[in-house]
Structure formats: structure tokens, C-alpha cells
Predict the structure.
Amino acid sequence: MAHDNNTVLVLGATGGIGGEVTRQLRQAGWTVRALRRGMAQAMKQEDGITWLRGDAMDRQAVMGAAKGCSVIVHAVNPPGYRNWAQLVLPMLDNTIAAAKAEGATIVLPGTVYNYGPDAFSGPIGEDAPQQPVTRKGAIRVELERRLEAASRNGARVLIVRAGDFFGPKAGNNWFSQGLVKAGLPVKAVSYPGSAGTAHQWSYLPDVARTMVALLARRDRLEPFARFHMAGHRDTYGTQMSNTIRNVVARRTGTTPRVTAFPWWLLALASPFVTTLREMREMRYLWQTPVLMDNAKLVAFLGHEPHTPLEEAVEASLESMGCLGTALAPAAA
């Protein structure tokens, strides 16, 4: 059983959170393996990471890649939400099978989709009732139910739940697909929330740092351990938009305007586009304050990793290609 070695398998290492956790585990001295579909060779070394060819849907591939690992990071997300419902649970079951075989700890990035409006009266603790109102939320609840069962059966589990992700290379998220558009200069910030409604954001490098710090003390974690992050609390629903405006103004000399996110447009297009339909289902999370209580995390770690918002937003916009070249002198 591989409780104590520092060998980890990351599923979803090419995605936002998976990629960030992979980099940070590597920096923290872990031996990192990652599974990737469609690679030409069966194995290759790159940046200190061993890439193995294989698919998270293939149980033998996952179990083979996890041999001798003490931790499996389950950060895999079917691209563009296509066939999400059909793929998510079989992938998790493969990870659970591998973790049981190795006595390994499964790390899952948690979401707020698990909660319905009944949980939003105050900051959400780890034991809040999970009564989701969307299909995706129901699947997330089932994921965690299966993990809890696995934790009584030879595997160990660590769930780190955070708010809306943003950050360098963050993939599918509201920041890079809703508020601004990756790869384009920021002319306007399109904000999905109602004015005065608090919203919680989580900077990916902070989430990854939290996971790595918790894994360093995994001998002290209960078999089914859950932690909530407070992340960046946008108390009035204006701070994120204003920070984007400030960064863009400072870097490019033009100040974008803030507009309301066009939910009506989503309603028209969503029958045809899966991602838009998924985004529309999540509207309830923008109409009510959704904040998490990080008291348990702070008690355990002593602090929550936290990058200042302006710095986090600038790094995100920079890596998304939204800042172009900063005030370049005019060509002679």
C-alpha cells in the first residue's frame, strides 16, 4: 500500500486545475505521472513529468498508471461538457478502483453546484446539506457519494471546494468565457450577477497550493476529508469587474465599460449549444450570495493561500492574451 511515498498520478493534467496542480506538485518535489489521450508514444518525459498514454475511461490504463502512487488527482473534465453525464461517473469509478488497489488518496476539486438555494443563507460549511437544483449538481453530489463510500473501503479522499475558478490557463469558466473573452482585448466586462449580490472567486494557483499543502499533511486527514476555501469574496458583485477595469486601464491606457451579461442571448442559443445550456442552468448561483466558510481549512493549515486580487487578475488576463502588448511605443 502506497500511503507515504510522494508519487502522484494526475488525471486531467492538461486542464485548468489539473495543469496547475501538476506544476505545483512537481515544484514541491513530488514524482508526477500524468495520463494523456492521443499521445504518439506510450510514454514521454517533459518538465520532470512522466506522461503516459491512456484514457480516463479505460480502467486498465488508469490502474496501470496508478501503480505505486499514494495520491490520484481526479481533475478530469470531458471537454466542452459534451456527453458530460455519460462520462463523468465511469471516469470516477476507474479512479476509485485504482485508489482502492493502491490504498491511495483521491483528490477531487469540488464545486458549489452541489448546493441548492437552501444552503445559501450564510457561509456554507463542509456539512451543509447538498440539495442541487441542476443535472450537473446532481452528478456532482453522486460523485462525492461514491467517494465517501470508497473512503470506507480502502481508498482515502480529499475534496477541496472552491468558488468560480479563474487564473492562467483556466479553461472552461465564467471569467474567460463570460466576463471577458480569452484572446481578445477587453473592450467591456460582461458581468452575470445582480448588483449588490456577493459572489466568490477562486484563483487556480491558490487552489492548487491549498491542495499541495493539505497533501503534505495527509497523514492527519480523516479518510473522507472536505475543506472549503473562501477565495476572493466579491461582496457587492462589483469588485471583480472593477479590478479587471483597473488592470486593463493601467496596462493598455483604455478603460473598459461594464455591461450586464446577456442572459437573454443564452436563452436563444442554448437549445443548440451545450456549453451555453450549462451556463444558463447555473444562473441561480449569480442571483444569490454564494460564499463558503473556510474556518476548518484555516484551523488545519493555519492560513488559506491567497494571492492579492489585482495580481491574480493581471496574471490571468496576461496568460489569456487579453492585454496584448502593454502600451507599445508607436512604430517609427
Remarks:
- The chain has a mean pLDDT of 89.
- The radius of gyration is 20 Å.
